[in-house]
Amino acid sequence: MPDGAVETSTEASPAAAGPVEAEWAAAVAAVRSVPADGRVLLICHVNPDGDALGSMLGFGLALRRLGVRRLQATFPGPPEVPDTLRGLPGEELLVPAAEAYPDPDLVVCFDAASESRLGELVDRLATAGTALVLDHHASNTRFGAVNLVDPCAAATSVVVDELLTRLGVPLDAGIAECLYVALTTDTGSFRFEATTPAVHHLAARLLATGIRPGDISRRIFDTRPFGAVRLFGEVLGRARLEPAAAGGRGLVWTYATLDDLARHGQRPYVLEALIDSVRCTAEADVSCVVKQTSPDEWAVSLRSKGAVDVSRVAVALGGGGHRFAAGFTGRGGAEQVVDAIRDQLDAALIDVRR
Ligand code: 5GP
Ligand code: MN
């Protein structure tokens, strides 16, 4: 799922400038010091999106080119890859979380802002010889021994690309397809503010390997089962617009239940794309989709067009994310979850005079 408009936090923090030379050098050393028969475990965040999976598998393919033989890629939770992300190069590296090396020589984490996003795999940070974190969330808690965190990067794949350059691994079509999926996912296909000249330069280098952007984009963004099309129609039909919310900037929201999914025969991940249809609403700055994950739990997606720092809303409610694209786990009923969000919106309004 797209991260939405990735934005650098306005707060000054050590990570705001991206990794320093010593951190890049430490990351290169961590990779290069894996013994010949060493085990490397790659982990991306729960419910992986295109950036998480693409960055992880692209890096995995590069490690293979460097001669790493004992190599696994995984993510917490059910070992289910969304249909749209199946068939990526390097997919054969994926193993269910339950089969992941218990004590790898090196663990590398992708696109996870905090340890909580690693679910049941969080113990590997302690059992691994070294833990390397690659990410672009401003809120990253720097939970690795070595942290490559660049909040200015449009996607985690930008950080991966820089590390591959420093490791001397050239791009091939397999690596490029993975990184392209990641880059297009997090820039909303080059539509969000984070689409800098550097993003287009990277896209050009990826395309130069011969990958087919039309095929990739159709598969990732423009394909869904007919049942999901009908499900979207129903869920969008119950969307509500609250023009007075967020200091008059407006809130639009909807929800989807497990029963909705069952009636249309759909898997939960198909709902990840729903926020993109909801956030089109002209009359609202903030958009929200509340997706039931168990009888009492909801995965919440929040987006803003620029008036509200939705990561503040998400953090206040136990989650995190980027300034204009964030999320958290809600409890109770869907209405209750939205009540809690509404209460946080005014405090999260961005003061344009700053
Ligand atoms: P999405 O709405 O696409 O699921 O998530 C948007 C962004 O919000 C993601 O990039 C991720 O950083 C963040 N996010 C979503 N859900 C959670 C959550 O439950 N906890 C945290 N910490 N961040 C989340
Ligand atoms: Mn990302």
UniProtKB/TrEMBL annotation:
Positions of the DHHA1 domain: 265-349
InterPro entries in the record: DDH_dom, DHH_sf, DHHA1_dom, Oligoribo/pAp-PDE_c-di-AMP_PDE
Domain of life where this protein originates: Bacteria
Domain DDH: residue ranges: 39-182
Identification of the protein by name: Bifunctional oligoribonuclease/PAP phosphatase NrnA
